[in-house]
Every structure is written in C-alpha cells, then in structure tokens.
Design brief:
- By secondary structure, the chain is α+β, with helices and mostly antiparallel strands.
- It folds into two domains: about 160 residues, Butyryl-CoA Dehydrogenase, subunit A, domain 3 (Up-down Bundle), CATH 1.20.140; about 120 residues, Nuclear Transport Factor 2, Chain: A.
Amino acid sequence: MDEISLLAQQFEAYRAYLRGVAYRMLGSRSEAEDAVQEAWLRLSRSDHRNIENLGGWLTTVVARVCLDLLRTRSSRREESLESDASQDALSREVGGDPEQELLLANSIGLALLVVLDTLTPAERIAFVLHDMFDLPFEEIASVVGRSPLAARQLASRARRRVRGTTDLSAADLTRQRQVIDAFLTASRSGDFDSLIALLDPDVVLHADRGPAGVPTEIRGASRVARQALAYSRNVRFAQPALVNGMIGILVAPQGRLSVVLEFKIRDAKIFEVDVITEPMRLRELDLAIASEN
C-alpha cells in the first residue's frame, strides 16, 4: 500500500467522528461534509509524517474550517437582515436529503441546534468542542485565536445562553411544560377535543404573517384548535424550548428556525398564542433549551 493510500485509510477511521464534530458546529449536513473534505485536502497536502496526534490535528482543522464558515454565514446575515429565515435555511441545504437531515437534527436536539445558532461563531466553537467533545481549553484556544482563559469564558458564556435563565420557579415551568407537551401531543395526533380542553374559551392567536402575508388574529377555542390542526404537518419539527424565559415551541425543519410560538397560560389553560415568523422578530428572541420534566 502506497503512502497516500495508507493516509486515506487512517483518515477514514476518523471521518464519522469529524462529521459529528462539524455537524454540531454548523447544523448543516452538507456544510459538515464540506468541512470534513477540506480537512482531508489539507491533510493530503501537509507534511503528515510530523503529525503526532492525527485525531487531534484533524479535529483542530475541522474546527477552524467550521469557524470560518460560521463567520461567513454571520456576515451574510448582517448584510441581508430582511431575508426570509426559512428560505435561507433551504438555500444552504440544496441537494441535501431532508429526512436524513431531520434524523441528524433529532439525534442532537432541534432546540439545541436553534439555540446554538444564536451564539457567536467563537462561542459556538468553544461550547461544542468543550461541552460536547471534552477538548481542553488549551487546544480550543488555538482554534478560536484566544488565550485558554478567554476560550473558557467563551464556553461559559455560551453555556449560560444555552441553558437560559428565568425568574419563574421550577414548579411554574413544570406546569407550563405539561400544558405545552399536551398541546403538542394533541396536535400531532389530530385530537381536536383535547386541544379544546387546553384552550381558554376566549383564547386569541396572533400571527405576524398569515396566509396572505399580513398579520392575522384568530379568536375562540374552536377556531384556534382548527388552526393548530391545519399546521399539523409541521408538528414533527416542533420542540419545546424557553422563549423569553417562558415555555414555548420552536418549529425548526432540519434544525433551521422558521416559527416560534409564545404562549400565555393561566390556570392550566392557554389564553394567548403569538406565532412569530418574521426573521427580524425571530432574531430578537431570547431562546434556550427547556429541560425535561
């Protein structure tokens, strides 16, 4: 076996691991594959005989490639704040397999991917490498171009944002979560009666972009329940999360945020729903992972 074939064989042993690292950083299967392929190209052009820890070297290269991609992505978002979030998500996934993308997203957690997307590129890299892959801050520092102490601070700041903080008690959040879980269950199963039981008779639903592209308001439990069932096809992409400190719902096909539902709950009944789809409003939300009951 020649030298390049042996090197390729060694690289293949790390491919799945590297793909997992890249996907958690980027939230995109196609971009993750590109990052892994770029790592192979750099390895094949390097003086690999001087690499003592191939796995560590490859992880560092993939992380740096991902950091560059995230920075480019952030710059594009700043240049085009009016672009539609769901269209932006689709444009990054041209040629991808939506079902495979969903399986990958679900394996990590749709809400986590969405929250990671709110972090700065350096925060996301530091958090993923340390909290998900247990890399030491000395190695992370070389990737993000900071000191080990600064890398630790990046990860800590990201961790606080991922976990979220709220003034509500754990008991209040648990009660909210029970109502929202029941709402999702009823929506997924098409159970109209159960939805009605969860809604206040005078519930009102606000949508910033209705079917005609204009704000919409729907009043009454029956009408809101029918509206929820009309969008049942998107429920498989939905997941509870903390939205501005309250339990809400993220709708995130392939981990790409497209809709957020905010709820107001009183006496275990939903009396107001705010459906947010406008990209500018989505970016302004404070999102975090909602812990399980």
